[in-house]
Amino acid sequence: MPDTTTTVADTTATIAPALRLDGVSLDYRLGRKRVRALDDVSFSIGQGEIVALVGESGSGKTTIAGAVTGLLPRSAAITAGSITVDGTDVTRLSESRWSRIRGRTVGLIPQDPGASLTPVLTIGDQVAEIFAIRGERLGRAERRARAIELLEVAEVSRAADRLTQYPHELSGGLKQRILIAIAFGLNPALLVADEPTSALDVTVQKQILRVFDRLAREHGSSVLFVTHDLALATDHASRALVLQRGRLVDDAQVAEIVDTARVGYTRELIAHARATQSALPPEDPAPAADATGTGAAVPALEVRALTKSFAGRRGANATLAVDDVSFTLPAGRTLALVGESGSGKSTTARMILRLVDPTSGEIRLDGRDVTAVSGRDRLALWRRVQLVYQNPDSALDPRWTVGRIVAEPLAAMGLYPVTERRARVQELLDAVALPEGTIDKRPGELSGGQRQRVAIARSLAPNSSVVVLDEALSALDVITQERVLQLIESLQRQFGVSYLFISHDLSTVRRLAHHVVVLRAGRVVEQGSAREIFEAPRTDYVRELLDAIPGHRLIAGAAQTATTEGASRR
User: Fold this and answer.
1) Are the CB atoms for 510 and 279 separated by under 8 Å?
2) Cα distances (angstroms) measured from residue 517 to each of 58, 304, 499, 533
3) Nearest Cα to 240, choosing from 212, 270, 220, 215?
4) pTM exceeds cut of 0.70
5) CA atoms within 13 A on the CB side of 356
6) 239-297 pLDDT tens trace
7) Helix (H), strand (E) counts: the chain
8) CA–CA dist 245, 243 (Å, integer)
9) How far, in Å, are 55, 167, 203, 378, 560 from residue 566 at the CA level?
10) Are 267 and 240 in contact (CB under 8 A)?
């Protein structure tokens, strides 16, 4: 715990921490059952301290963030202990009381900025709400000037222009900067940052967190930084709290955790994070011969000169989202599409899946031209190429059982007799190593990692030859991510499936991909084997991307530990 005692003129005064949890236990009500989510959790955050809260999916991180900000669901109940924010006990405040302190005493920067900004209000209107909350009566011109000043402090580009724009007109990075401006504009004693950059690419993430760190220092704000990314936590926090199954198992300075973690579970998290950060790209074996032995095998996917332009609104010029993109995915290999937000990754994938029509170019799947397929031919295409989304929570129907979810593509495509589908589903669930009995459960009864395994099983159901993984690992903690990575590799060896892996997480790309294509503003700036890209990048842009990968303190700590151990052996 941080020392909150100061001595002035021989008089000892105790400064109240920005946040204190004392023996907090919390249950969720699921029907007639109660599930313990937090168990006797105690910690405090001192004034001006940045503390990371880390742990696996289901460890209780989001529950703590909800309890501290008064945003728990109705099914949650604090059964023991107390929560104090800046000297105020908030354990059982009414919503009307919370509305008076939320934002001003405790602020929140959420994971999804798109869901947190009101879509029907301009950015200017939403920033101006700060002044009303603070009770300031400003004229129109002064309100506009102050709003621009707030956005400029958060390094929002073209701040004056943003005031008349709506959230859907802005990138994810800009929306997150605006939320940061709003949060710091209210100058709360405590700021809860709940996975604030998990959906952003590495360069934008680096820029956002640089702004965040600077504003936290300038405002003297205390921060609870909730994240599943241990590498990110160690780069930006001074102290780390480690949760496991609702219990606080470690509370230590980041430097101590990186160098000599005392708790076994923390050491496991550190080891997994370091393994991902320092993994060497996989070797890419020579291509296999085709069935006749006369040449190389037919690629799983070929994209040639693919282009997509979107018509502008109200006579504006068309936007070229994808510009002359070409690459080849060999059968049984993994190709990663990487690049900043707006680089064209997702648009390229949507064209390959035939969810969006290309403006020009060619797409060949297993040697067959599928550029213009439609109707029943498109259904046949989806038998061979499937998609795994970033968020299994939104991709899996919560009302359906796992068995029905995985069987859905089989029913839609008329595959397997009805009497054989359950056996096929169980075979797929076994292949992705889900526990016995999962077939009759619903998504809400599974962990985040298990739900993503269900999504992967569904993608394999029609015997797909290509699976598109669209940020499919970005929301997973390091341990769950490693398990899913091992599963993906195992399925590739077992079934020969090819993966198109779309990700902003370059550490994971390095761990999984055989080939990498780097996009910027819709164009390919560099491509080659993963080893070529990561070990000998040819362009400044790719070197900038690699430099933005978080985890510098983790890697430095590993190098220091290795040096120390080597010296002791000598």
Assistant:
1) yes
2) 34, 13, 13, 9
3) 270
4) yes
5) 20
6) 999 999 999 999 999 989 888 888 999 998 888 888 877 777 787 765 555 544 545 68
7) 22, 22
8) 7
9) 31, 54, 35, 59, 10
10) no
